[in-house]
C-alpha cells in the first residue's frame, strides 16, 4: 500500500527532514528565503511537503502549508493524496485539517485503486474512518455521488472498505462501516475466493470479534462463495476453531441488530448505547452456550461491566413491567411507556433473516399496542434529581441489577418473552451486492 516515504534530507537544504521532524521554525525560515521550495518533491516517490507532514502527523506544518493555498490533493508517484497517507498512518488531526481544506475523498491511488476510506479501514484507524464518513455525509459528495455508494465504494480490484476491514481483523472499523450502511452480504468477484462475503474473509482471518459484528448485522452463514464454500468451511480450513463454532449452521442463530427500522437509525447516542449493550449481552449468552463443552473457552472479550452477583437495589416501581428483573431504561416516545433495554430488543430483534416472510412493519408497544416509532432514554421515576436520566445509572443501578443472574442462568427477558411476542416486529435483511476482484489477499486452494 506504499507505506514507506522517501524523506531523506536534501543535501542542500534539508527541508524534508525539517518537515518530517516537525521543525516548524526551520521550515518557515527556509520557505521565507525561497518560496519555490514549497513545491519541492522527493526524488523517487515524488512526495510533497504535504505528504510528508500528513504521514508524520505534523499538524502545525501542514496547517502552515495549506494556508499558503497549496492544493490539498497533490499526488505522489503512486497517486496517493496527503489525505490517504494521513488515514493510513492514523493521523486524525491531519485528516480533519485536510478535509476542512477541501481534500477530495473520491481520489483513487494507482496501486489498488483505493480511496482514503479504504486506507482507514485496511489499517484499522477507526477514528479516522469515522471522521471521513461524518465529513462526507454532510458534503456535496453525499448529494451528488450518494453516501451509501461512498460507504460501499469499490477499489480497483473489487473490495469495499468492509471487505478490507474484515480481512484485516479490524472489528471497530467493521462496526463503524456497518453502522453507516455497508452491505454486510456483498459478494466479491475474486477477493479471497470469487464470491466471498465479509463473513468469509473474517472467517479466513480468524477474527472472532469481526465474526460477531457481521453476524449481529445479519450476515448469512449459509451464503456460499463461487467454490461452494460457506464461511464455516473457510474457518475450518484455516483452523480457526472458535470462529467455526459460531459459524456452524447447526449452532444457534444469533440475534440480529434491527438496523433497517427507522426508529433504530434515528436513535440518539445514549439510547443506542443502552440497546447495544443489552444486545451484545444476549448474544454473549448464545456464544457461551455454543463454546461450552468445546476446546474453546467462552469469550471474555465482551464487557462484563454491567454484571454483578448482587440483587437489584432499584425500587420495584423502576423495574420493567414485562420481565420484572431489569431497570426501565427505554421509553417509547408518543405513548411514554417504559421497559428495559432487554425487553425492547426482544420486541425488535429476530433470530434469522428470511426475506420471504420478514416484515418491515415496526414493532408495537406491548402496553398500548401502538406502533413504536421512536425510542428515548427513560427518565427515572423515583430519582431525587428530576434531570437524572436512566443513562446516568449505567454505572450504578444497572451494574447492580439482576443481569448477571439472567445471563448466567438463562435470561428470561429473552427466552420467555421471545416466545410470547415471537409474532412481533420481524425484520427484512440488508441487501447484498456483487462486486469485482482483489488479488492482494487471494485464497489459494
TrEMBL record:
Query: What EC number(s) does this enzyme carry?
Result: 2.3.2.27
Catalytic activity from the UniProt record: S-ubiquitinyl-[E2 ubiquitin-conjugating enzyme]-L-cysteine + [acceptor protein]-L-lysine = [E2 ubiquitin-conjugating enzyme]-L-cysteine + N(6)-ubiquitinyl-[acceptor protein]-L-lysine
Q: A Gene Ontology MF term for this entry?
A: ubiquitin protein ligase activity
Segments of skewed composition (Basic and acidic residues): 436-445
Q: Enumerate the residue ranges of region (Disordered).
A: 383-445
Q: In which pathway does it act?
A: Protein modification; protein ubiquitination
Give the keywords, sorted: ANK repeat, Metal-binding, Repeat, Transferase, Ubl conjugation pathway, Zinc, Zinc-finger
Compositional bias ranges of the Low complexity kind: 407-419
Q: What class of enzyme is it?
A: transferase
Q: Where are the ANK repeats?
A: 45-77, 78-110, 157-189, 194-226
All copies of the RING-type domain together span: 320-369
Query: What PANTHER family does its record include?
Result: E3 UBIQUITIN-PROTEIN LIGASE XBAT31-RELATED, HOMEOBOX PROTEIN WARIAI
UniProt-recorded name of the protein: RING-type E3 ubiquitin transferase
Amino acid at each position: 500500500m506504499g507505506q514507506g516515504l522517501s524523506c531523506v534530507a536534501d543535501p542542500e537544504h534539508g527541508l524534508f527532514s525539517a518537515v518530517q521532524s516537525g521543525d516548524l521554525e526551520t521550515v518557515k525560515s527556509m520557505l521565507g528565503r525561497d518560496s519555490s521550495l514549497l513545491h519541492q518533491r522527493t526524488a523517487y516517490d515524488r512526495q510533497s511537503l504535504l505528504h510528508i507532514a500528513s504521514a508524520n502527523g505534523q499538524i502545525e506544518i501542514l496547517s502552515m502549508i495549506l494556508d499558503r493555498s497549496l492544493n490539498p490533493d497533490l499526488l505522489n508517484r503512486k497517486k496517493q493524496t496527503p489525505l490517504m497517507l494521513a488515514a493510513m498512518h492514523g493521523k486524525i488531526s491531519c485528516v480533519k485539517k485536510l478535509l476542512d481544506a477541501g481534500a477530495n475523498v473520491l481520489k483513487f491511488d494507482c496501486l489498488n485503486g483505493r480511496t482514503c476510506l479504504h486506507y482507514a479501514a485496511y489499517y484499522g484507524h477507526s477514528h479516522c474512518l469515522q471522521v471521513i464518513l461524518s465529513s462526507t455525509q454532510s458534503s456535496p459528495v453525499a448529494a451528488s455521488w450518494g453516501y451509501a455508494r461512498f460507504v460501499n465504494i469499490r477499489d480497483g480490484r473489487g473490495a469495499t472498505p468492509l471487505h478490507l476491514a474484515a480481512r484485516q481483523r479490524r472489528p471497530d472499523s467493521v462496526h463503524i462501516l456497518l453502522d453507516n450502511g455497508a452491505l454486510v452480504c456483498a459478494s466479491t468477484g475474486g477477493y479471497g475466493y470469487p464470491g466471498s462475503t465479509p463473513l468469509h474473509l473474517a472467517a479466513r482471518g480468524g477474527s472472532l470479534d469481526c465474526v460477531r459484528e457481521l453476524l449481529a448485522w445479519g450476515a448469512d452463514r449459509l451464503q456460499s462463495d463461487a467454490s461452494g464454500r460457506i464461511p464455516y468451511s473457510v474457518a475450518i480450513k484455516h483452523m480457526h476453531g472458535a470462529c467455526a463454532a459460531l459459524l456452524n449452521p447447526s449452532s444457534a442463530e444469533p440475534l440480529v441488530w434491527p438496523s433497517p427500522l427507522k426508529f433504530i437509525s434515528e436513535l440518539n447516542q445514549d439510547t443506542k448505547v443502552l440497546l447495544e449493550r443489552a444486545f451484545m449481552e444476549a448474544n454473549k449468552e448464545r456464544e457461551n452456550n455454543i463454546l461450552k463443552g468445546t476446546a474453546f473457552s467462552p469469550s471474555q472479550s465482551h464487557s462484563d461491566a454491567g454484571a454483578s452477583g448482587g440483587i437489584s437495589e432499584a425500587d420495584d416501581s423502576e423495574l420493567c413491567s414485562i420481565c420484572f428483573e431489569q431497570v426501565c431504561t427505554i421509553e417509547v416516545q408518543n405513548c411514554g411507556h417504559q421497559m428495559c433495554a432487554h425487553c425492547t430488543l426482544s420486541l425488535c430483534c429476530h433470530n434469522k433473516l428470511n426475506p420471504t416472510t420478514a416484515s418491515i412493519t415496526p414493532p408495537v408497544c406491548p402496553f398500548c399496542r401502538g406502533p413504536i416509532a421512536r425510542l428515548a432514554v427513560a427518565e427515572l421515576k423515583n430519582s431525587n434529581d428530576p434531570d437524572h436520566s436512566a443513562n446516568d445509572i449505567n454505572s450504578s443501578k444497572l451494574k447492580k441489577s439482576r443481569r448477571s443472574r439472567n445471563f448466567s442462568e438463562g435470561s428470561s427477558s429473552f427466552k420467555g418473552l421471545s416466545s410470547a411476542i415471537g409474532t412481533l416486529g420481524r425484520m427484512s435483511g440488508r441487501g447484498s451486492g456483487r462486486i469485482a476482484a482483489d488479488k492482494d489477499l487471494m485464497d489459494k486452494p
